[in-house]
Amino acid sequence: MKEIYIQRIYEDSKDKNAYRILVDRIWPRGISKEKADLDEWKKELAPSTELRKWFDHKAERFTEFSKRYQKELKDKTEELKAIKKIAKEKPVCLLFGAKDEKHNQAVILKEVLKSL
Fold first, then answer.
1. What confidence score (pLDDT) does residue 5 get?
2. What is the rounded distance in angstroms from the CA atom of residue 60 to the CA atom of residue 62?
């Protein structure tokens, strides 16, 4: 399997050969479709609107957010398997818009994918 990694969508691409997937429910501010250079936008893999609003990017809520988000992902096995299949062929970059690079849904999604 190739690498699965995360990156802020505001940064320049680390690997031009990677399959780029935006995993936010809301399109990131200030990013054009051209600049995003996405292969897919998987908003259905993002946390639910209710969970996203509850978390509110507060680091002290991250542990509970992680548990709740992983529970939501249990219903998304087909989408997760599709990403794993892509990762067998090429690196996969999970893109997110949050400023906090340690406390966001892409961190959790990457770990879930690696555990499949």
1. 97
2. 6
Beta bridge partners of 7: 95
Burial of 74 (0-12, 13-18, 19+ CB in 10 A): exposed
Burial class (CB in 10 A: 0-12, 13-18, 19+), 45: buried
Q: Which residues pair with 8 in a beta bridge?
A: 96
Residue 5 exposure: Cα atoms within 13 Å on the Cβ side = 12
Q: What CA–CA distance (Å, rounded) separates 99 from 92?
A: 20
**Angle between the 105-115 and 62-73 helix axes, to the nearest 10 degrees?**
50
The list of the chain residues with pLDDT below 70 reads none
Pairwise CA distance, residues 55 & 51, whole Å: 6
- Residue 60's Cβ-side half-sphere holds a number of Cα atoms within 13 Å equal to 0
pTM of the model: 0.95
How far, rounded to the nearest angstrom, does the alpha carbon of residue 48 sit from its chain's CA centroid?
Answer: 13
